Amino acid sequence: MDYKKIISESIKLGSVKSEEFYSLLAPPKDASMGEWCLPCFKFAGQFQKTPGLIASMIKDSFRKNEYIASAEVVSGYVNFRLNQKQFIFDTLAYVHHKGEKFSTPAKFTKNADKTICIDYSSVNIAKPFHMGHLIATTLGGSLYRIYKYLGYKVIGINHLGDWGTQFGKLIVAFKRYTNYDELRKGGIDLLNQIYVRFHEDAEKTPSMNDEAREWFKKIEEGNSEALEIFEKFKKITLDECSKIYDRLGVTFDSYDGESFYNDKLDAVVNELKEKRLLSTSEGAEVVQFENDKYPPCLIRKSDGASLYATRDLAAALYRKKTYNFDKCLYVVAYQQNLHFQQVFEVLTKMGNEWAKDCIHVAFGMVSLKGGEAFSTRKGNVILLKDVLDTAEKKALDAINEKNPTLENKEETAKIIGTGASIFFALRASRIKDLEFSYEAALNFDGETGVYVQYTHARCASILSKSSHARFQLDSLKTLLNDETFNVCKVLSEYDEIVQSAAHKNEPSFIARYLIDLSSAFNQFYIKHKVSGDPSRLLLVRCVKNVLKNGMELLLMQAPDKM
Ligand code: ARG
Question: Are the CB atoms for 487 and 543 separated by under 8 Å?
Fold first, then answer.
């Protein structure tokens, strides 16, 4: 229900259009003042009257209706109060109608012909899947679901880091130190070990570097042995990543990474040349920017080798051509701010007006509180797998303490541990640096995923205990109280919150919303007896469904018991 529209159309002030009222209406700072408030300062000059007088004129023009109960003047504002009964009825009817699994609301179906590309996770081959990937993966994965819910066509892209001279080194290391059998068993850990060992040995035997260069050249030339080994590295890495993707519930529609663009780079360089955008600097080819807005963007090294940026240019052009995206999001840490500024600016200089639709969704750095314990064991990185394992183990400990007779303890612990980790990663504004703490993430009473899951399980348990099969608004009487009204207010905001989460690429809005809904519900539950009351049971069901669907947008699962 669009209450702003209803209010805008029920008031009058000279020839002011209702759209103008619409854009000014906002919730008042103090919720006790009503649900919507209209500041009148803007009209003071236009009508040569004080804002207070304008507010009174608007109030007098107000036509009471079934949705809005009253208008009240407070200094230069008009505050409107909803008709609680109607509002509660409308909200619960709407949410109830959505059922258990929300599909895209009708108002968003117009998005169906728009495509959003999301480049996320984008791991590097033969490098560990570390904790830094927690946000790159969950933020992107969550945006994927958010845009889907809003009706868009979404293409998830894992822009693999599968190109570079390091693969020459890895082949040398592979041939010197190990074999396929060991690699199969040792996986990505072994790949890392031999890479480190290569560097140690190459210090003593510099010719190893020449050897590595030759192997890389062979990869470039498509030598079958080189490619075979390289593909093995790729498979091992992706097998390892897939396990994590499964645990986090993220999926991709494309794994076209850096190497995919090998045969598309010349075209980019030629186009830049034709458009006279390339210049030479110390033997390398670069694009320079007016007034040195950014440092030059390196396109081709003096030995002819392409760069990360060259590949991103090719990738953007390819994505536009292939998917004709309306937006292309790059979910990548803020360390790469400059890189994306340069790439987007080069695309603009090439005459692509759609470059404005390429958006770097930057996020902060991740560290682990008390992370030293990890770093000694694994070198300098903290593996994401270890973080999830630990969170799950701690969740199991908590279950054993709080609810030892729970069935499916292991399974539930997985859902709680992973959910807590994801929620913790997505809860704060993405640009903030994050210090991950198991204690904070798994706190049952804090603003955590566990708290949200627990509230959901509480709803499930209430519903399962109720023998009352009818869930209906047969009598609204028992719903007419402040706590219920408050729950309904939060419930009614869901779609708008999801929309603004997409608008700002901030799943954190949804995370905070779920906390608000949980606490509004718990305040209601402390005060009001639910069992045997069909209307209140319906409210519980609505809360449960919104919590569940909101969690789904954050890649979280919602157990019924925990
Ligand atoms: N593989 C890169 C890294 O780990 C991230 C790639 C992001 N995507 C892109 N199109 N550049 O730093």
Answer: yes
Bridge partner list, 118: 156, 329
Say if residue 430 is exposed, middle or buried (CB neighbours under 10 Å; 0-12, 13-18, 19+).
buried
E-strand ranges in 308-371 read 327-333, 358-363, 366-368
pLDDT digits (tens, 9 = 90+) for 149-160: 999 999 999 999
pTM exceeds cut of 0.90: yes
Instruction: Tell which residue, 554, 242, 562, has the closest CA to residue 410.
Output: 562
Which atom of ligand 1 is the closest one to the Cα of 315? 10
Q: Which residues form the pocket of ligand 1, taking CB atoms under 6 Å from any ligand atom?
A: 119, 122, 124, 159, 161, 312, 315, 330, 332
Question: Atom 5 of ligand 1 has which residue's CA nearest to it?
Answer: 122
The 284-287 sheet, strands edge to edge? 278-281, 284-287, 297-300
- Best residue among 332, 359, 366 to mutate for probing ligand 1's pocket (most ligand atoms within 8 Å of CB) is 332
Q: What's the pLDDT tens digit per position in 65-124?
A: 999 999 999 999 999 999 999 999 999 999 999 999 999 999 999 999 999 999 999 999
What is the rounded average pLDDT of the residues 302-316?
94
